[in-house]
Write a structure and sequence with these properties.
The protein contains 12 helices and 22 strands. It has 487 residues and is α+β, with helices and mostly antiparallel strands. The chain has 3 domains: 191 residues, FAD/NAD(P)-binding domain (3-Layer(bba) Sandwich); 89 residues, D-Amino Acid Oxidase, Chain A, domain 2 (2-Layer Sandwich), CATH 3.30.9; 80 residues, Glutaredoxin (3-Layer(aba) Sandwich), CATH 3.40.30.120. The strands form 4 sheets. The chain has an 8-stranded mixed β-sheet. Strands 1, 2, 8, 9, 10, 16 and 17 form a 7-stranded mixed β-sheet that branches. Strands 20-19-21-22 form a 4-stranded mixed β-sheet, with helices on one face. Strand 5 and strand 6 form a beta hairpin. The structure holds flavin-adenine dinucleotide (FAD).
Length: 487
């Protein structure tokens, strides 16, 4: 049961996209939550742009996708262009998802949309409140913070550090980010352009001077990211952006007004642990990677989505504490995979070796039109290919499940769904009995899928069988038994 002496169930540190999404998900599930943020308001920078199909599906299940679709510029193609020659053109339109495009939404808009939704759900961010320490106690955590210069104290059942790459929560746990830093410095610029490049395609432009990537924010606005030999001044000037485009971009693109520019260095690092007792880290607090591939924010949002239903079940005494260990067990392999993909992309795009450049420029046109290559590329980037195979609470590949019955924000919460073949073949009576046995966490739904499928509260398949016989229902029962406590 919830402990009323504890002020809040989940204290979230940091109102970036990950903290805001986690707060929304807590609110949707009726979890008591508090979100503290050291800034006095949201950041105005457009940092992360790309929202991938699986993240849109997650937003859909969470009931927040509609305004994102209204704001997004939809991208359905990726071109690789070098020396003004198109090496490859790949369609990015995965047919298995209703979101068969990349939604380009500047991060400040993403944060504002999540904040607006949070407010409609009756919550808000506690700005000007900087997390200082977290002291685990028996059954809760004591947290201290600096609230506009005054010391504040909170108690929470769980703390989640969504406080970015320099996470104080992570430091407090004594967890280091393992990995390394890339040698190159990067420049980023959001510019007004002419319309020579299609607004539904992004361009990756490798060259001997270093890689350059062009992301369409809208018909006349582009994000330029490129390596830079020597940063000049505090931020890249329009002149520098024009020079870099002239040297490395497809012909004809012109840079008009400069909206935002910045230099940055990039790392490929992840924390070896994402949980210590009642304290967790998520998002950039737990992993940072190259912006080539645009996976950072998406991966952090998936962390929050993976964690929140587990916290909910444990808070309601419907699951054992060991369920919380599966957060790290499931997310770390995914995070390492994302770091590997973005690292490969960064190295292939930016190799300084002339021979490797020649090979790359010959190899890409050959393989890029092959269906298996395109499929693998889209599966990786879209994050639709993520599965939790090998997790202690999954039997089988643990791939995603998505259909109309779980969309819209009211159709999947913190319960498992037992989908049974409505055309017959499954013992409905036995399935009903199983659901009664696990009534606090399991819901029976007829479906057109063959046999039976056990869908987790985050839309991943925990178990499936193409028949609904006694052995399949027994497997479902023992899988649930492992993680669920009967109350
Ligand atoms: C230039 C650039 C381009 C990028 N492009 C992409 C892209 O296209 N796609 C993509 O997916 N990702 C991209 N990223 C990465 C993306 O911006 C991050 O992955 C994302 O911001 C991570 O979100 P977060 O909520 O984990 O952390 P953050 O956005 O860093 O938010 C952390 C929050 O915690 C607050 N905070 C910190 N310390 C404390 C404290 N002690 N107490 C209270 N609050 C605290 C901070 O003020 C901040 O608001 C890009 C990043 C950069 C820099």
């Amino acid at each position: 049961m919830l402990d009323s002496a504890v002020q809040t169930d989940v204290l979230i540190v940091g109102a970036g996209p990950v903290g805001l999404f986690l707060a929304n998900e807590c609110a949707r599930r009726g979890i008591r939550w508090k979100l503290i943020e050291e800034r006095s308001s949201q950041s105005i920078h457009s940092k992360a742009l790309a929202i991938f199909p699986r993240t849109l599906e997650i937003f859909d299940m969470a009931g927040v996708v509609v305004p994102f679709l209204e704001k997004a510029n939809r991208v359905t193609g990726v071109a690789v262009i070098t020396h003004r020659r198109t090496l490859a053109h790949m369609r990015f339109a995965p047919v298995e998802s209703p979101y068969s495009f990349i939604a380009m939404v500047p991060q400040n808009i993403t944060e504002n949309l999540l904040l607006e939704k949070l407010r409609t759900r009756g919550g808000d961010v506690e700005y000007g409140t900087k997390f200082l320490t977290a002291e685990p106690q028996d059954g809760y955590v004591n947290v201290t913070a600096d609230r506009n210069g005054e010391r504040a104290g909170f108690t929470a059942s769980f703390v989640v550090g969504c406080d970015g790459a320099h996470s104080s929560v992570r430091h407090g746990l004594g967890l280091a980010l393992e990995g390394g830093e890339y040698h190159d410095s990067f420049m980023l610029a959001d510019i007004e352009t002419n319309e020579v490049l299609p607004s539904d395609e992004m361009q990756l432009c490798p060259s001997e001077l270093g890689p350059l990537a062009i992301f369409p924010i809208s018909a006349k606005r582009r994000r330029i990211v490129a390596t830079i030999e020597q940063p000049q001044g505090d931020a890249p000037s329009l002149e520098l952006v024009r020079k870099t485009l002239a040297e490395r971009a497809p012909g004809g693109i012109e840079a008009g007004a400069l909206h935002w520019s910045s230099y940055f260095r990039i790392h490929h690092r992840n924390a070896a642990q994402m949980r210590r007792g009642r304290i967790f880290i998520a998002g950039d607090a737990a992993h940072i990677h190259s912006p080539f591939g645009g996976q950072g924010m998406n991966t952090g949002l998936h962390d929050a989505w993976n964690l929140v239903w587990k916290l909910d079940l444990v808070l309601r005494s419907h699951a054992n504490d060991s369920l919380l260990d599966t957060y790290e067990a499931e997310r770390l392999p995914v995070i390492k995979g994302v770091i590997h993909t973005t690292d490969t992309l960064t190295k292939v795009m930016g190799t300084p070796n002339k021979f490797a450049q020649v090979l790359r420029d010959a190899f890409i046109p050959m393989v890029s039109h092959l269906a298996p290559f395109q499929h693998a590329f889209v599966q990786r980037l879209s994050e639709l290919g993520i599965g939790y195979r090998g997790s202690p609470i999954v039997e089988g590949p643990g791939t995603r499940y998505f259909d109309d019955s779980i969309r819209g924000g009211n159709h999947i919460g913190s319960r498992f769904l037992l989908l049974i073949d409505e055309t017959g073949g499954t013992s409905t009576e036995a399935a009903k009995q199983l659901c009664e046995h696990f009534q606090s966490v399991l819901e029976l739904r007829p479906s057109t899928c063959r046999g039976i499928t056990l869908v987790r509260p985050d839309g991943y398949i925990a178990y499936s069988a193409d028949h609904g016989g006694a052995s399949a229902l027994e497997s479902v029962g023992s899988l649930l038994e492992k993680q669920v406590s009967q109350s």
